[in-house]
Amino acid sequence: GKTLGENVRNAKITSDDIIRPLPNAYSPDGGLTILYGNLAEQGAVVKKAGVAEKMLTFEGDAVIFESQEDACEGILSNKVSAGQVVVIRYEGPRGGPGMREMLGPTSAIAGAGLLKEVALITDGRFSGGSHGMVVGHVAPEAQAGGALALLRDGDVISIDSREKSLRVELSDDELSQRREQWRAPEPRYTRGALAKFSRLASSASKGAVTS
């Protein structure tokens, strides 16, 4: 029946390697970093605490998959090489629909021995179990016409968790031309709750809530 403050008032920290005071913080800026750039005008999320030091900045050619299933199949059939950026799109709130969790592809990358050799970006999401240079919640999502939908195999993608940026090395004019040619794919569900969610879900940057 006591408050949390009352319960911990007399508690003592026995190891400041576990519960750390600010002068001994595990990280000076936390475990999560929000990235922005021409691939994520509304933001994207990377769990920097799970990224190897050499991967904190990464640049590579895009290898693109249109779903989580396609990505897993491609990774397991050796369609992904060291130095590339795996792009999984149409897995956002509307595209998934429901913003599916991408542990399968990251596990496949780890199983292929590429965890410190490739990066992954997606408009889907990650759980706390994923690690490596994996960037999720890219917004706007591909299904809503975000820049992720405009990427092509071989486009050069730059991820910099120190400078908090996520970019594709394309001019604004090139992106505009591609956007004029782009058409949204048909939704994966046309009836029922998932079809309704796909129509009504907001961007991940706004909580992926329905209007």
Structure description:
By secondary structure, the chain is an alpha/beta fold. The chain has helices spanning 4-8, 68-76, 103-111, 172-181, 192-200, and strands at residues 32-37, 40-47, 57-65, 84-88, 119-122, 134-139, 156-160, 165-168. The chain has an eight-stranded mixed beta sheet. Helix 2 packs parallel to helix 3. The N and C termini lie far apart (39 Å).
What's the helix and strand layout?
Layout: H1 4-8, E1 32-37, E2 40-47, E3 57-65, H2 68-76, E4 84-88, H3 103-111, E5 119-122, E6 134-139, E7 156-160, E8 165-168, H4 172-181, H5 192-200
Parallel strand pairs: 3-4, 4-5, 5-6
Antiparallel strand pairs: 1-2, 2-6, 3-7, 7-8
Helix pairs in contact: 2-3
How confident is the prediction overall: mean pLDDT? 93
Structural class: alpha/beta
Number of helices: 5
Percent of residues in helices: 10-25%
Form type: globular
Number of strands: 8
Assembly type: single chain
Flag low-confidence runs: none
Strand content: 15-25%
- The run of helices and strands is HEEEHEHEEEEHH
Q: Describe the sheet with the most strands.
A: 8 strands, mixed
**Taking Cα atoms only, what radius of gyration do you get, to the nearest Å?**
19 Å
Distance between the termini: 39 Å
- The strands making up the biggest β-sheet line up spatially as 1-2-6-5-4-3-7-8
Outline of this structure?
The chain has 211 residues and is of the alpha/beta class. The chain has helices at residues 4-8, 68-76, 103-111, 172-181, 192-200, and strands at 32-37, 40-47, 57-65, 84-88, 119-122, 134-139, 156-160, 165-168.
